[in-house]
Design a protein that fits this description.
Strands 2, 4, 5, 7, 12, 13, 14 and 16 form an 8-stranded antiparallel beta sheet that branches. Helix content is 3%, strand content 52%. A hairpin with a 2-residue loop joins strand 4 and strand 5. It is an all-beta fold and 516 residues long. It has 2 domains: 312 residues, 5 Propeller (Tachylectin-2, Chain A); 196 residues, Jelly Rolls.
Length: 516
């Protein structure tokens, strides 16, 4: 695999976020559109912002303790200590005791894939303990097998406890001082665990991150459903009060690998003036990231809503393969999900290929577990499949072009561009000709789709001007949006490579529009 993608996924320190710019719009009338090509479009950035949502919209547990809900939870006793006294109601859960206690409460809710976040809102701690004054959030199978993030208010530290067959393995230790009220939680994303916190009206922070797959790998396909959303409190004595617990599928700390959702012929999928696209919910490394489906309000491009997620079941694991595309195919009818096999990449020796799964009857919204029969392309990622003249044209990063029959059963590589290294090739038809746009570290190249012959450079603002310091360049995913007056609006959905502190969450979302 080219070194540039490895380098960027190792991450840099975060840069300053740039404010959104005023919205621009451009229209091309039908006569000029028939004669124009990509070099006639002039894109400028109109919005740039950080999508940050540790817990996605797909929530499986949400308890605000408005009533006594303690019967909903199984009290685990991993250390032999009593659970203390649990009092729930009126918007709070109080855990108290005159002697040491440990209340670890396992719910009945779980996720189908190993990309989970569990959050607790903490109203108050004891503040007079000598050893334990702690809160917990995570996933548990039983009292001998669990993974929880914790915050100890005495030692002012956070960490993750990975417990397997009764053996305790503390990881991801870091210093932290949190003042109640605060929110706290665990994200377990593929092979990696992270400790999350937010104080008062501040932003969510990732306090520590560590790979945990060598201790407990929840990507094994029989494990996610067994590990239920869990939370708790532990103290020498006194009372800890929680306001709320939530759990569900993990969200995102940044987005990358954007790709417009289309019909097979490349027509962008738009419903109620909302443009749909896929993007990678980026966390710490490829195996801790996954593919999501979003809708973008074309009337207000700051309005972005997650509507779906795709995970892949292969080789006995459920993984977050991403950097792909979703095609809404009326002939199934349903979805064709394309993805790159990053979910098991080690960034060093594993070749990353492209796979495809058909989901008959599926809608864009919801959680999708995809079974893939095998790799469509052995080595090549960032696919952008488009059905042209009865054959699937699939450009991939590199830049290479593969061509397959309509059933995606036979085909192979037909062209390659000697261009150094460009990623995120995206197709667009203009003036009756199909083109491919690909992103580099300082510019966007344009090719003819038929043979990948070089046309020129797209006139577009590079999201991280004057140039990216290293790889994972932006993907120029452009939607041609028909307007009521017969003109066309051109919207690019792309990203930059800014990370958050802790080298997590690659990518601000960047919107560009063509300026006439």
């Amino acid at each position: 695999m080219p070194a540039s993608r490895r380098a960027v996924l190792a991450a840099l320190a975060a840069g300053a976020l740039l404010p959104g710019l005023g919205k621009l719009s451009a229209r091309a009338d039908s006569a000029s559109r028939d004669a124009m090509g990509p070099l006639d479009l002039h894109f400028r950035i109109t919005q740039r912002y950080r999508p940050l949502q540790p817990l996605s919209a797909f929530v499986t547990l949400d308890d605000g303790f408005d009533a006594d809900s303690t019967a909903r939870y199984e009290a685990l006793h991993p250390t032999g200590e009593a659970a203390g006294t649990l009092t729930a109601g009126g918007g709070a859960l109080a855990v108290s005791g005159d002697a040491p206690y440990f209340a670890l409460l396992r719910s009945g809710a779980a996720q189908q894939a190993p990309y989970s976040t569990v959050l607790v809102d903490v109203r108050s701690m004891v503040n007079t303990c000598q050893a334990e004054d702690s809160v917990f959030a995570g996933l548990a199978r039983d009292e001998r097998n669990y993974v929880t993030a914790w915050y100890n208010n005495v030692s002012k530290t956070v960490g993750v406890d990975v417990v397997t067959d009764g053996g305790l393995h503390p990881v991801a230790l870091a210093s932290a001082s949190l003042a109640a009220p605060f929110s706290f939680g665990l994200i377990l994303a593929g092979d990696t665990a992270g400790v999350l916190a937010r104080e008062a009206d501040g932003d969510w922070r990732v306090l520590s991150v560590q790979r945990t797959a060598d201790l407990l790998d929840l990507r094994a396909q029989d494990l996610p459903a067994a590990y239920r959303n869990t939370f708790g409190a532990r103290a020498d004595h006194g009372t800890i009060v929680l306001d709320r617990v939530r759990g569900g599928y993990s969200g995102y700390f940044g987005l990358r690998d954007t790709c417009i959702v289309t019909a097979p012929d490349g027509t962008p999928h738009i419903e109620d003036d909302r443009l749909f696209f896929t993007a990678t919910a980026a966390f710490a490394d490829p195996a801790s990231s996954h593919q999501c489906v979003f809708s973008l309000n074309l009337a207000d491009t700051t309005d972005v809503v997650e509507v779906g997620k795709t995970f892949v079941r292969r080789d006995g694991r459920i993984v977050g393969d991403h950097a792909g595309k979703v095609v809404v195919d009326p002939d199934l009818p349903g979805l064709r999900v394309f993805a790159s096999t990053w979910g098991t990449s080690d960034l060093e020796t594993t070749a990353v290929g492209t796979e495809v799964a058909d989901l008959p009857g599926a809608a864009l919204a919801g959680i999708h577990l995809c079974d893939v029969p095998g790799r469509l392309i052995q080595t090549g990622y960032d696919p952008c499949p488009t059905l042209v003249d009865g054959a699937w044209q699939v450009p991939v990063a590199g830049t290479s072009l593969y061509r397959f029959d309509a059933a995606l059963e036979s085909g192979g590589q037909v062209a390659a561009a000697d261009d150094g290294f460009y990623e995120g090739p995206r197709t667009l038809q203009l003036g009756g000709t199909w083109y491919v746009m690909a992103g580099g570290i300082k510019d966007f190249r344009v090719y003819r789709l038929a043979d990948l012959s070089f046309v020129g450079f797209l006139d577009a603002e590079h999201p991280q001007a004057p140039a990216y310091p290293f790889g994972n360049p932006p993907h120029p995913s452009i939607a041609a949006v028909p307007q009521p007056d017969g003109s066309t609006r051109y919207v690019m959905v792309t990203f930059d490579i800014q990370t958050l502190p802790g080298a997590v969450g690659l990518g601000n979302l960047v919107i560009e529009e063509a300026v006439a």
